[in-house]
Design goal:
disordered N terminus; 11 strands; alpha/beta; single chain; disordered C terminus; seven-stranded mixed beta sheet; 361 residues; four-stranded antiparallel beta sheet
């Protein structure tokens, strides 16, 4: 292993880079006792149903799965007929980062729209919500929105309700990719149901891995009439884990009390600190609002190279130098301040010319 991976550096590439929260690991150890029935017929999975209902309402039915892509594919596949289509943004994770799994595994068509800040609106939905009854076109059946979005922005409850009402009026259902729903709720200071059940969301992909789980997410059905065959599809989609207690125990640890909120709030606070520090530098262009745990900023090429000597982070738009700096539940103030100091130093250093020699005044 390289020094970069053994020195304890906290990177800014993704909240997936973080390890598991100690309270989650303790819950895993506590679940590692004796023999219990497999495939979800265990006390931890039963407890998870109660925990999620406390967060999202008594009608919620929870299906633990292994990962976020699996949650999204399973949810969308259960919500649509074979000829159905999903309306989402061009930047949606289901469109850009799941290697075509909704199409390849789910057999679904994605109908995308451009959304500069990552958020759908009824007007954007209507750009693809047409052709109903036309046998030549995949039939729009689900609107999928991401909370928080891939661009770090957050839907208000009013915006979610407007989208749900608009979709339902057109005979479509609403799926929410909630991989970072905890960050959205922490930003708004609202309970999880205020962004989902109370707004009319039909099915939720409930996040875990990005907020401190070792692995595991869940499909939460909020309206039973919105899905068909979830139990069978979970197996067919290779998301039915035999030792389900170990996924369920993690989700119970995250959502039974306030660990989800503490962890997401910490990540958000570190992103806000990072954003404030970048704003104080004054010479960089931050290209999206910082509402969750990500900062999108344009960096000169020589600055990005200098920072990458120590930290990993993702290019978001290589053409204009936009990078994404992501904070996690274990990001510290020291982590942020060290990055900011290195950023300021790199900006003060003149870029070397093509030949590699230092620039001269």
């Amino acid at each position: 292993m390289t020094e970069q991976h053994t020195s304890g550096v906290h990177h800014f590439a993704s909240d997936n880079y973080a390890g598991a929260h100690p309270e989650v690991l303790a819950a895993l150890a506590a679940a590692n006792v004796g023999h219990v029935p497999a495939y979800g017929d265990d006390p931890w999975t039963a407890r998870l149903q109660d925990v999620v209902r406390a967060q999202l309402g008594e009608q919620a039915v929870t299906y633990p799965v292994l990962n976020g892509t699996g949650a999204n594919v399973l949810a969308l596949q259960a919500m649509l007929p074979r000829w159905g289509a999903v309306i989402c943004t061009e930047a949606a994770h289901v469109n850009t980062d799941e290697n075509g799994a909704p199409e390849r595994v789910g057999g679904l068509k994605l109908l995308t729209v451009a959304a500069p800040d990552g958020r759908l609106t009824p007007e954007l939905v209507d750009r693809q919500a047409w052709g109903f009854g036309d046998v030549h076109r995949a039939q729009p059946g689900v609107v999928s929105l991401t909370q928080a979005t891939e661009l770090g922005t957050v839907y208000t409850p009013e915006a979610v309700r407007e989208l749900c009402d608009h979709a339902h009026a057109r005979g479509m259902r609403v799926h929410m990719d909630g991989a970072r729903i905890a960050n959205a709720a922490a930003h708004l200071g609202l309970p999880l149901r205020a962004l989902t059940t109370d707004c009319g969301v039909d099915v939720l992909s409930l996040g875990g891995t990005k907020n401190g789980l070792l692995l595991g997410e869940a499909v939460v059905v909020l309206d039973p009439s919105a899905v068909v065959g979830v139990d069978f599809l979970r197996k067919a989609d290779m998301q039915l884990t035999s030792k389900m207690r170990f996924v369920s125990a993690q989700l119970v640890a995250l959502y039974e009390d306030d660990l989800w909120l503490r962890s997401a709030g910490r990540a958000n606070a570190m992103a806000a600190r990072l954003r404030a520090g970048i704003d104080a530098i004054g010479s960089l262009d931050v290209v999206q609002p910082t509402e969750a745990n990500a900062v999108f900023v344009r960096l000169p090429a020589h600055v990005a190279r200098a920072l990458r000597r120590r930290w990993r982070f993702y290019d978001w738009d290589a053409a204009d130098g936009t990078v994404r700096l992501m904070c996690a539940f274990d990001t510290t103030e020291q982590d942020v301040d060290e990055l900011l100091a290195a950023l300021a130093d790199a900006l003060d250093d003149a870029p070397a010319p093509e030949g590699g020699a230092p620039a001269t005044p």
